[in-house]
Amino acid sequence: MLLSTSPALRASFFALPPSLRRACYATATSPSASHPEIFDLVCVGGGPAGLSLISSLKSQSSTKRLKIALIDAQKLSAPPRTGDGDASGTREFSNRCSSLTPASVKFLKRIGAWENVEQGRVQAYTGMEVWDGVSGAKINFDPMDRGRVAGVVESLGRLVPGSGFGRGAEDEGAGEVATMCENSNLTAALVERVRGLEGVEVLDGTKVEGIELGPEKEKDGMSLDLSLWPVLRLPGNRKIAARLLVGADGANSPVRTFADIPSKGWDYNQHGVVATLQLDQVQDVSAPRKAFQRFLPTGPIALLPLPGNKASLVWSTTTALASHLKSLPPAEFTAAVNAAFRLLTTDISYMLTHSTASQDLDWRESQTDLRALGLPQDFPRVDSVVSGSIASFPLRMRHASTYTGHRIALIGDAAHTIHPLAGQGLNLGLADAESLARHLAIGMEAGMDIGSCWCLDGYGSDRWGKNNAVMGVVDKVGKVFGASAGPVVWARSLGFNAVERLGWVKGGLMRGASG
Amino acid sequence: MSSSLLSPLPLRSLLRLSPSLRAQTFSVLSRPPPNYPGHVPLNLIERGALAVGSALGSITNPYRHDLVAALAEATSSPYFIARLRRAMLASPTGRRILRDKPRITSRSMSLEKLRLLPEGTVGRGYAAWLDREGVTPDTRDPVRYIDDPEEAYVMQRYRETHDFIHAITGLPVIIEGELAIKAFEFANTALPMTGLSLAAIVRLKKAERERFWKVYGPWAMRNGLKSGECMCVYWEEELETDAGVLRERLGIEMPPDLRKTRKREREEKRRAKEGVE
After folding, report:
1. What would the pLDDT profile of A448-478 be if each residue is shown by its tens digit?
2. How far apart are CA A1 and CA A425, in angstroms?
3. Same-domain pairing of A288 and A366
4. CA A281, A282, A283, A285: dihedral to nearest 10 degrees?
5. pTM for the model
6. Domain extent listing, chain B
7. How confident is the model at residue A79 (pLDDT cuts 50, 70, 90)?
8. Which residue spans traverse the membrane (chain A) (predicted)?
9. From CA B111, how far away is CA A396, in angstroms rounded?
């Protein structure tokens, strides 16, 4: 720019004091009618993935000073919190809960969000029992298996000083498998963390009206070239340009549409029915809790523990059955849930199609060999369902072909949608946020442009393969357990029984989940 | 029930059987308690021996109905009797039968009342068939070797309603008639004993065997496969139904009268012999 001016003008410019000289430069980048306000990172979507990305960036020294904007169409206000004097159990639990792996909890602690989570409303569970609805074959993830993970490799690793192999068995952890947390609880904690950060402009209640590439570069030699930058049009004629636009805006991501990234997958023709249930067991606060899942041919049904004697139900089933379940009165729904965990699959499908669930339940239970069908000894009975908590959502699998583009990155549900049978959807999103923040830090330390492919490719190659593997395994497990033909049932029961006896395999799986 | 036969070595534990089979590998010194009166829990080896022994015994002497019953119980677990029970649970009438658990004995089926029913009804035909063949409803052995009480009831019900199939098809109690019924039941209920008992075809005379392959075998297969589950018929409620109406509802054709055919054949042979002389 300076080269195009005359030498005399240049000499007088350099004669100015530094503060006035800086003001001349600054006017070139202040928002004006000619170009929009520039942000280093614009995150569209105020869900857990987007919020944790921002918190993570602000907790790393190399990315702390990025100018960030967070946009969400809804208001990001924390839900009403009970005061210190009230029992935290006065509000009913929401029916949208997620299971956070120990790795996710560690990440949330590191970014300073976990301390804002209402601890009285989260429930860590130390055991998980999964069984086949047709054959009764089961896998019981016991906390004792973690101790047995110190196998040959780790014993040798501990002998060699400085090697990483020996460290795994000594990490902290009460032996929990995962922690149940309401989505609203987690989001509120993250919102509270983000609102306390500097350099973050929170534009909640703001709907993005459009995303385009910036205007063509003008030929006056002074303006910036934003022709390859994403520019967001906001209400009130405001335009912001993003060095890096992060799409954390859910399964139907407008950012992904803007970036022309195709998202491939299929619908499962299933709905996930969720509800909050009241159990008959009176649980002490410190009592160890367990999660249960039974694989039925129509889809898995899971009972996940919540504090006190409550539990969260996630029942993936066919669309027709899901709408029938939602139409049932509460007593019938409770009987249907109890039946779905205990009875023969023939009985369950008969009772759900002939609406005789509560009439037949006692009789069928007395005639069924519950142990042979795999029912765990400590399985609770569902007493009632919290009114108004029965809902359902459609299940599908989608995976974006790539997570990054020029000045675009996708995290969370915008990048991938997964079947809930393994409880991994939210955890994959948090892992995406962690990975992207880490790669942006690497980029910043090397002086890269954070929107360029040199910085973003690392994130894509780190996460795409891992997410694809997890989604693939979950999809195949769902399909294998959806069959009820003899040979398939026999083969999968053989596999289940084999894994059940190999404690080190289970321990390895649990350790993998704990990061 | 843990087994003293299997050692706790890790490799052996991998080779352990699936739970349903593992439950049957108890030692004879630690037999589990019975699940219902008359129940005799058998382990895998004992059940195998019973199956082989009763198969050989019943083919040598087809009138040993107790061996036929033992063969049925030894070969039906774990899959076939469970499949039959599931088929009953899937039908509304079958569920009612399993809930009420009716038993057919000479006390519950009053033959005097049945004989007074109108001609052509199922009950009248049943009483007439019992009188013609000289049998009573009490000749059925109790189920002993099936572990689950409900599956044991299904097997008992199968045994007790076998005579009703005889009654609505008119097939007699001689070997030829029994084999035709067994073939029909094999196609209808898929119990292994019914299929295995068809080995008794070797005991038929040449003419009877030909009749089986040409007439009664095809009839049995055709009707057994296309008709509804005969186990789901609540016979106690169908006693006053017209037999033809019930056959049509179930989809069963009436086979040629076997006694009349045999009588005709005997008379033709006698006339041929007299003619020669």
Report:
1. 999 999 999 999 999 999 999 999 999 999 9
2. 49
3. yes
4. 160
5. 0.84
6. 44-270
7. low
8. none
9. 62
Give the pLDDT band (50/70/90) at residue B248. very high
Q: What is the dihedral of CA A473, A474, A478, A481, to 10 degrees?
A: 60
> Could you tell me the CATH number of the domain that includes residue A359?
3.30.9.10
Any residues with CB less than 8 A from the CB of B37 and at least 6 apart, and which? Answer: none
Chain B interface residues facing chain A, Cβ-Cβ under 8 Å?
13-14, 16, 18-20, 23, 79, 86, 89-90, 92, 95, 98-99, 148-150
pLDDT of residue A105: 95
Of the ranges A280-284, A323-327, B217-221, which one carries the lowest mean pLDDT score?
A: A280-284
Are A498 and B14 inside 8 Å of each other by CB? Answer: yes
In chain A, residues with a C-beta closer than 8 Å to the C-beta of B79 are: 486
CB contact under 8 A, A347 and B89: yes
Q: Are A444 and A334 members of one domain?
A: no
Would the CB atoms of B14 and A350 count as touching at under 8 Å?
A: no
Grouping H, G, I as helix, E, B as strand and the rest as coil, residue B4 is: coil
Residue of higher predicted confidence among A29 and A16: A16
Q: From chain B, pick out residues whose CB is under 8 angstroms from the CB of A502.
A: 14
Same domain, A329 and A442: no
Same domain, A437 and A361: no
* Residue B39, marked binder: no
Q: Is A256 in the same domain as A275?
A: no
Domain count, chain A: 2
Q: Is B235 within 8 Å of B122 (Cβ atoms)?
A: yes
A217 and A283: one domain? no
B65 is in an annotated binding site: no
Query: Which has the minimum average pLDDT: A30-44, A128-142, A149-163?
Result: A149-163
Domain match, A305 and A407 both: no
- Per the domain annotation, does A279 fall within a domain? yes
| Residue-number span of the structural domain to which A324 is assigned | 269-392
Q: Are residues A51 and A115 in the same domain?
A: yes
**Nearest 5°: phi and psi at A458?**
-60, -40
Residue A26 in any domain: the answer is: no
In a domain, A10, yes or no: no
Q: List, in sequence order, the alpha helices (H) in A328-452.
A: 330-342, 345-354, 357-367, 425-445
Q: Cα dist. A297→A292, A349, A353, A371, A387 in Å? A: 16, 10, 15, 19, 28
Last residue of a domain, one of A360, A392, A424: A392
- Which residue, of A338, A371, A392, is where some domain finishes? A392
